[in-house]
Structure formats: structure tokens, C-alpha cells
Amino acid sequence: MLGLSVTTLVGYLAVIAVLMITPGPDMMFVLTNATRYGARSGVIAALGVAAGETIHVAAVVCGLAAVITASPVLFTAIRWAGAVYLVILGIRAVRLSGTANHSHPERGATPRQAFLRGLVTNLLNPKMIMFSVAFLPQFVDPAAGDPTAQLILLGALFVAVQLTVDVTLGAGVGRLAHRMTDGLWSRRINRLCAFAFVALGVRLALG
């Protein structure tokens, strides 16, 4: 497989599998959508996140990600935009927590909204940019073949693992939320997600 050893690929998959199950903005967004609107919205949100990751990988392959990280002004602007966006998501979750129609969890978010918000959440995460620049190239072996092809392969595996984890969580949590229609439970979950979004946003702003 492009000359990459089995050991390298297994090690790479093991590392990203651990990283994917660590809670972050993307996972919180998928879980929030699944909890509030149901499995379908959670899965579509996961697809939006995966689309954002695909763009990050493409940026690494094209060298654009390195340009962004090398520009303090541009990187800081993206960091603050991401922080503000996460706080807005948190405030929105608090405002909507008291107005949810819990007997119909699939209502309220169109597929387009879920996808686009997942995409933006991922794109405005500067840590994803840094991660892509610093992490993917470490597993490229110049002696194993075309470095660009290796980056594409590694990036595709990264997106595939993330998508698998997020879709599984989104579908599972969405189905669970559909069965647990108690309004108090749903409001508590929404408020917990809101707190997580705001906390993540503040942490991102503080660097």
C-alpha cells in the first residue's frame, strides 16, 4: 500500500482511533444534534464534520495549511472566529433547551443546516489545522513512494475513522434520545452540551 509498512499503518490507525474518541468541538456538535433532533440529524452533522476534515487534508496536501499556521494574524483570526462560533452554539443550545419539541426529536434542524454547521465547526477549529500539519507528515516515508499520495491515503484513513466514530455516536445517541422523550432529561442534556460548547470556545480563545 504505497510502500507503507503494515506496522506504520497499524500504529497510525491506533493513534487516530484514540484521538477520535477524545471529546472535542466536532464530537460535541454531533452529539448535540443527535440529542436534540434525532439520529438522522446526528449522522448528517457527522458528514458535515467529515467534509471539513477532507478540506483540511486537501489543504495539507496543497501546502495551504502550512501557510496558515505560518501567519500569526491569519491563524489568530481563525482561532477567534472558532471560539466565537462555539460560544454562539452554546448560547443557542441554552435558548432552545426550553423550546424543544421532545416528542418529535427529528424536527427543527434541516439536513442542510446540520451539514453546514458541522462543516463550519470543523473548519473554524485551528487545532485541526495544526494537527493536520504536525501529525499527518510524521507518518510519511519518502522511501515508500510518492509523499503526496501517502498524505492522501493517510488523510483518507483519518476521515474514514472519524466518520465511523461520529456516525456511530450520532445514530446511537439519536435513537436513545428518541426513546427518552422526558423533557427534563432533554433539557439537561442540552444545557450540558451548551456548557461544553462555551467552555471549548473560551479554551480556544485563551489558546
TrEMBL record:
Subcellular location: Cell membrane
Membrane-crossing segments per the record: 12-31, 43-68, 74-94, 115-139, 151-177
Entries under InterPro entries matching the protein: LeuE-type
GO function term, MF aspect, one: amino acid transmembrane transporter activity
Record keyword Cell membrane present: yes
Cellular component, GO annotation: plasma membrane
Alphabetical UniProt keywords: Cell membrane, Membrane, Transmembrane, Transmembrane helix
Membrane topology: Multi-pass membrane protein
PANTHER family xref list: ARGININE EXPORTER PROTEIN ARGO (PTHR30086), ARGININE EXPORTER PROTEIN ARGO-RELATED (PTHR30086:SF20)
Name the record gives this protein: Lysine transporter LysE
Organism encoding this protein: Micromonospora maris
Lineage of producing organism: Bacteria, Bacillati, Actinomycetota, Actinomycetes, Micromonosporales
